[in-house]
Write a structure and sequence with these properties.
- With 340 residues, the chain is α/β, with parallel strands linked by helices.
- It folds into 2 domains: 196 residues, Medium-chain alcohol dehydrogenases, catalytic domain (Quinone Oxidoreductase, Chain A, domain 1, Alpha-Beta Complex); 126 residues, Rossmann fold (3-Layer(aba) Sandwich).
- The chain is built from 10 helices and 15 strands.
- Strands 3, 4, 5, 6, 7, 14 and 15 form a 7-stranded mixed sheet that branches.
Length: 340
């Protein structure tokens, strides 16, 4: 195996050219492993990177996407974590194994797959074994590919950082990939889940997936509805996936001394909200930038132990990547996956 086919762009912005290209593979040496990609899961971030570059020093031709599942085909002489035939998934931040985030106050961590580092929409890759984790045994490749970013983001917010426990009230906004992982993870830990959406159909599907309460954004004040359902208590955990001024809604909804995980930027990168709610309720407002490899390994174990099945809205073939992007833009219920 000397070359690989890959999806790539030649620039960012609306004039970019999205095409299938070919490149030469690096030798399988030292601690590197050759991985054959089986599936790639798309994230809203992939769209932002291709449209704006997100201020990252991209190298062109640029390969998009950060989340994949595949099979190890060959290993270098110094590899200790994998063997040929092992099923693996990518890590979003390859250099972040455990502990504190990397970088410093001046330069926060930004070196991730599908951004500073090339993405995963390639049929084969040769990279360090440290860039991968074992895949769960109980899900297929498409399902496994949804874990490295969307799954880990929800897990890191609720479990790793949030310390979720049975009986907690969890408010989840929307029905995208991170949101539905949050729903499933929260229910697996015995939490009471409230979910918001502007779609009656998606709310119905979320309830079928396990949500305890559906809050329609089109039916009056959903925060007041939350107050009514909780006798004024609010939510112990809020997954704030909208961003922008919508943080104000999260501050209204959160319980006293609760926790808000700021994850999404759908309504902008500048967040805002009422200072009175922030000061008087004194919640923890935590930014979530996916998570480290050790937490991903914990999520993998939880998937195998609980039987959690990632929700896939649409599966597309490798050649259908542009159509998959269009489906992503329309707001899927769960994940959009490219199968190789």
């Amino acid at each position: 195996m000397q070359t690989t086919r890959q999806w790539q762009i030649d620039m960012v912005g609306p004039e970019r050219k999205l095409a299938i290209g070919e490149r030469r593979l690096e030798p399988v040496s030292s601690n590197r492993i050759l991985v054959r990609t089986e599936a790639v899961s798309l994230n809203f971030r992939d769209r932002l990177v291709m449209e704006t570059g997100m201020g990252l020093p991209l190298q062109f031709p640029f390969v998009p996407a950060s989340d994949m599942a595949g099979v190890v085909e060959a290993v270098g002489p110094d590899v200790t974590r994998f063997k040929p035939g092992d099923r693996v998934i990518s890590t979003f931040s390859p250099d972040w194994i455990d502990g504190r985030g990397l970088g410093d106050a001046r330069t926060p961590p930004y070196k991730t797959r599908g951004g500073f580092y090339p993405g995963v929409l390639s049929q084969y890759t040769v990279l360090s074994e440290e860039w991968y984790s074992h895949a769960p045994a109980t899900v297929d490749a498409a399902e496994a590919s949804t874990l490295p970013c969307a799954g880990l983001t929800a897990w890191f917010a609720l479990i790793e950082r949030g310390g979720l426990k049975a009986g907690d009230k969890v408010l989840i906004q929307g029905t995208g990939g991170v949101a539905l992982f949050g729903l499933q993870i929260a229910k697996a830990h015995g939490a009471e889940v409230f979910i918001t959406s502007g779609s009656a159909e998606k709310l119905e599907r979320a309830v079928a997936l396990g949500a305890d309460h559906a809050l329609s954004r089109n039916d009056g004040d959903w925060v007041e509805r939350l107050y009514s359902l909780t006798d004024g208590y609010g939510a112990d955990h809020v997954l704030e996936i909208v961003g922008g001024a919508h943080l104000g809604q999260a501050l209204k909804a959160v319980a006293v001394n609760g926790r808000i995980s700021v994850i999404g930027v759908l309504e902008g990168f500048e967040v805002s909200g009422p200072a009175a709610q922030l000061l008087l309720k004194a919640p923890v407002v935590q930014g979530i930038s996916v998570g480290h490899r050790r937490a991903l390994e914990g999520l993998v174990r939880a998937v195998d132990q609980t039987g959690l099945k990632p929700v896939i809205d649409k599966r597309c073939a490798f050649e259908e990547f542009p159509a998959a992007l269009e489906h992503l833009y329309r707001g899927p219920f769960g994940k959009v996956v490219i199968e190789f």
